[in-house]
Amino acid sequence: MVKFWKIALLGLIIISMVSCSAENSSSYVLEKAKERRESQSERKLFKDFFKEESVENQNTIINIEEKEEVTEEFFDRSFKLVFFGDSLTQGVGDESQKGGFTSIIKQHYEAKPYIDNVSVTNLGVRGNRTNHLLKRLEDPEVQEALAEADVIFMTVGGNDLMKVIRENFLDLTFSLFDKEQGFYAERLDSVLGEVRKHNDSSRIYLVGLFNPFYHFFQEIEEMNEVVTNWNATTISILDEYPNTAYVPIQDIFIDPEENLLDDDQFHPNQKGYQLIGINIINEIKRFNEETSLEEMLEEE
Asked: In which element (H, E) is residue 126 found?
């Protein structure tokens, strides 16, 4: 209980400082390109252009259509990334003002030779909890962005956890965290269900939680255990949804060799976001290596 009092005290300090309450691989991408190619190849070249010409000219056009192979450049090779979530998605704390880990993910896809243009839609809002995401999913603009996404990246849960600390700082117990963890699981399940209503096939990467208190109170192992349990809940929910992946980041902020937090001691700084981005890219590579094209088609 004494240790939880320390967490509560730090929580109050952080609240006053940051106002928390205000807050893939070639097979997959090429498959997306194939879908675009098939849909576009349905329209015939030179359709009706020589409609009134002679039979000889018409036969010539037919021969051209049969023999000419349309180059890959003819098709849309753009790729749409949508980031949806809280302040981590927004990039709060990144002193470079480049959007935190989102710019790193964009660079990863831009390096692919089969993609000409990578667009980013950042739907991160500071302070958002799972209930906020559910409300925002009623917005037609959010729905449209998710529907058009080739890959979706999400962050959520940190503010849900902080809400427990803020509202119960005089009586923090494991049982209280366990109870709220169950409610969090229900809301997260609803969020993913709603996202899938608007996009039932694109891959979803959900970034886990980390313990922002570790820097000041390394001896409080209980808080690390709470974060671990909440991350385990996130994983269990994701297991119910095909073509989704969990990105662990908790270990990044345990015994780091350098400071990884912003001045508010709650959000990552530029270096912290860089390491989160590396973990996401590693998960993208790992997930693609373990998922065959046939499996992805079956999931769709």
From this structure: none
Tell which phi-psi region holds residue 157, choosing left (phi > 0), alpha (psi between -120 and 50) or beta: left
Can you tell me the distance from the alpha carbon of 195 to that of 141, in angstroms, rounded to the nearest whole number?
Answer: 13
Q: What is the largest CA-CA distance in the chain?
A: 92
Would you say residue 68 lies in a domain? no
C-alpha angle 145/150/151, rounded to 5°? 90
Residue at 43 is within a domain: no
For residue range 83-102, what is the model confidence (pLDDT) as tens digits?
A: 999 999 999 999 999 999 99
Q: Which of 80, 88, 125 has the alpha carbon at shortest distance from 276?
A: 88
Query: Residues with Cβ < 8 Å from 249, sequence gap 6 or more?
Result: 207, 208, 209, 210, 275, 276, 279
- DSSP3 helix / strand / coil % (the chain, rounded to 5): 55, 10, 35
Total domains present in the chain:
1
Q: How far apart are CA 273 and CA 255, in angstroms?
A: 16
Domain contains 274? yes
- Helical pair 2-18 and 158-167, crossing angle rounded to 10 deg: 110
* 205 phi/psi in degrees, rounded to 5: -110, 125
**97 Rama class: left (phi>0) / alpha (psi -120 to 50) / beta:** left
Taking only the tens place, the pLDDT of each residue in 62-75 is 444 444 444 444 45
CATH of the domain at 287: 3.40.50.1110
Is 49 among the domain residues? no
* Sheet of strand 151-155: strand arrangement: 117-124, 78-85, 151-155, 203-207, 244-247
- 189-222 pLDDT per residue, tens: 999 999 999 999 999 999 999 998 876 666 567 8
| Whether 270 contacts 96, CB under 8 Å | yes
Least Cα distance to 205 among 83, 108, 291 occurs for 83
What is the residue range of 221's domain?
A: 2-15+77-292
- What 3-state DSSP class applies to 267? coil
In contact, 239 and 248? CB cutoff 8 Å: no
